Amino acid sequence: MKExxxxxxxxxxxxxxxxxxxxxxxxxxxxxxxxxxxxTPEKPKDSGEILCALTAGLYKDNYSAETLKAIAxxxxxxxxxxxxxxxxxxxxxEENASGSIKDVYGEIxxxxxxxxxxxxxxxxxxxxxxxxxxxxxxYSETSNGTTYKNENYKYIHSVASPWDCYxxxxxxxxxxxxxxxxGIDYLCKNGCSAEExxxxxxxxFEIADD
Length: 210
What we know:
The protein has 210 residues and is mainly alpha-helical. 42% of the residues lie in helices and 9% in strands. The protein has seven helices and seven strands. It has helices spanning 2-29, 47-56, 65-81, 99-103, 105-116, 181-189, 194-201, and strands at 126-130, 133-134, 139-140, 147-148, 176-177, 179-180, 206-209. A hairpin with a 2-residue loop joins strand 1 (126-130) and strand 2. Helix 2 (47-56) crosses helix 3 and helix 2 (47-56) packs across helix 5 (105-116). The longest helix has 28 residues, at 2-29.
């Protein structure tokens, strides 16, 4: 009889302790995870940083400062017209630059500043416009001596780009719609301003400040 009484008491003690154990397990299971600093979102980039990154993404060692300005105006136009057309690898931010591009990132910043005409108290954004509208302007590294029309860009016309034929890596099969970057570089190195070079390829456009 004594043994049965002891067994009943032990059973009661074990039953009473179960809710406490379950509660502690639940606390462990639903504890909030610790968020590391790497999980926090990056600080959003401002428009100047974005323009520099897009210009740097097209940079070449042999481009002149005026060519960089022309590219900055082109990228400024395209980002305003259709920001969703760009992919992550189109942007080269300063913290990710290396080698020769890192060394000249200051020049790229200056070109972007010139393109957007940043002043102490105001910023005027220079863009290419047709009928007062900023339109996406396609571009290629080079052409085969002329640019082409395209159904997707009915506002772009074909123009001659003979200086592309002077390139050491000239490709007779290259097809360019819109702007030839090597053609822009040639024109800028031979006396044209960034604006004049761009308007050669886009004669129906104008350079406008917001």
